[in-house]
Specification:
Radius of gyration: 27 Å
Distance between the termini: 47 Å
Strand content: 5-15%
Strand order of the largest sheet: 4-5-3-2-9-12-11
Number of strands: 13
Oligomer: single chain
Structural class: alpha+beta
């Protein structure tokens, strides 16, 4: 039974409309500072406020916390609050944003006046918990697969770990100074913000990242399998196809394939770098840089394989393929800074493995382990960025959005497979 083109178009329209509805129906950003001025509702927060306040979050030795918001007000409002404490309490009660980070957990609210600044202090229990060794983790701000997002609102937000500790992980977009992590200016507050702290040093950092790994590991594995299993099957079929397809094997010699692969890689690298430059005024855009680095790795792999391939055998070609992928990541890191996108690198590794896959297939063996390794790449890619959702839906839909990467593995992997086969034949 042949599928009607009209039915395909209708299905695509339904998926698009569902995504639009999910985005349109999403709640406004969750504000970190519950009583600071709001860019979402265009309200000033506390009555008489002259600007956005600041928020300091102090974590104690038990993992509980004290949140202190400081909001400047005009002089006449300050006088009124100083003369009438009930007016101050009423203004603070009315200022709470409908969506704020500590909603439902706020306790022991105290409002005072410090000169012309309203100070609102409140307690939030169980902000942090102990992890591996002496490491502690603040996972209060990790939203999981939720479609919600944070709005910083406050002019400055600072998380203070207990005195005598150090923050031991890289906190997205935050300036870290010993036991504090601070977001100011245009810094975004990531939906998956984890802060680990402990004794500091290499061992402290290792304990902190191990704690994060234990926290996100089960979800990452689940989302990776749910979102990447179908993609992995498709990549595995690509691996089988490049073993059994002879198209071009008699037309292209190793030298021609090297020139083709190098040219494609160089043109792609230059093109994506140009896109990365024009896409933003604040340095290179991370996405194009990641793709450009794959182009460099692709060109280096093609040239290196032809010159060294006959001496490397299967294991050497696998190592060369993985080395090219690591080089691509190493190029992206200094140009765009961390994090280096894992999805391009994982699919880049699957593409690079087509080189030894072709080599082994031409030697008369089916490369089961190599095809399986390439098939795991989509699962690893989604797991590395978990938890994931697309338009508020689960990882399965997210995986569908990565389908073009499977086509990229097939398109760019096949020339590498042909080169591997030519190397196995010993023909240049």
């Amino acid at each position: 039974m042949r599928t009607s083109p009209l039915a395909i178009v209708a299905l695509l329209c339904l998926v698009t409309l569902a995504g639009i509805a999910a985005v349109a129906g999403a709640p406004p950003p969750t504000q970190l500072c519950g009583v600071c001025s709001s860019d979402v509702t265009d309200e000033a927060g506390i009555d008489g406020a002259t600007g956005a306040g600041t928020l300091d979050i102090y974590v104690d030795e038990r993992g509980d916390s004290l949140w202190r918001a400081r909001v400047p007000v005009d002089s006449s409002t300050a006088e009124r609050y100083r003369a009438n404490e009930s007016a101050l309490e009423a203004a603070v009660d009315d200022a709470w944003a409908p969506y704020h980070a500590a909603e439902g957990d706020v306790g022991a609210v105290e409002s005072t006046l410090d000169g012309e600044t309203v100070v609102v202090e409140y307690a939030v229990d169980d902000l942090a918990r102990q992890g591996v060794g002496d490491a502690w983790i603040v996972d209060y701000f990790a939203l999981g697969a939720s479609n919600a997002r944070y709005g910083r609102t406050a002019e400055r937000v600072t998380i203070h770990a207990p005195e005598g500790t150090e923050i031991t992980n890289r906190v997205p977009d935050a300036a870290v100074d010993e036991n504090t992590a601070t977001w100011t200016d245009d810094a975004e507050f990531d939906r998956q913000t984890y802060v680990t702290y402990g004794s500091g040093g290499v061992l402290g950092a290792a304990a902190g990242y191990a704690t994060i790994g234990l926290e996100v590991g089960p979800t990452a594995l689940e989302h990776g399998v749910r979102g990447g299993a179908a993609l992995g099957l498709l990549v595995g079929l690509v691996g089988v196809a490049v073993c059994r397809t002879d198209l071009g094997i008699a037309v292209f010699d190793a030298a021609t394939l090297e020139r083709l692969i190098a040219a494609v890689g160089v043109v792609g690298a230059v093109g994506f770098l140009v896109v990365g430059v024009v896409a933003t005024d604040a340095g290179l855009a991370s996405g194009p840089v990641a793709l450009a680095s794959l182009g460099v790795g692709y060109a280096l792999l093609g040239s290196g394989a032809r010159r060294l391939g006959r001496r490397l055998e299967t294991r050497g070609l696998v190592g060369l393929s993985l080395l090219a992928t690591l080089v691509a990541g190493g190029i992206a890191l200094p140009l765009a800074g961390p994090p280096v996108y894992a999805i391009p690198l994982c699919f880049g590794a699957a593409t690079a493995l087509c080189l030894p896959i072709g080599y082994v297939a031409e030697r008369g063996r089916f490369p089961v382990a190599l095809v399986a390794g390439a098939a795991v790449a989509p699962i690893a890619a989604i797991a590395s960025v978990a938890p994931v959702s697309a338009f508020g839906y689960g990882p399965a839909l997210y995986g569908l959005l990565l389908l073009p990467w499977v086509a990229a593995v097939a398109a760019f992997g096949y020339p590498l497979a042909l080169l591997g086969r030519r190397l196995a034949l010993g023909a240049d």
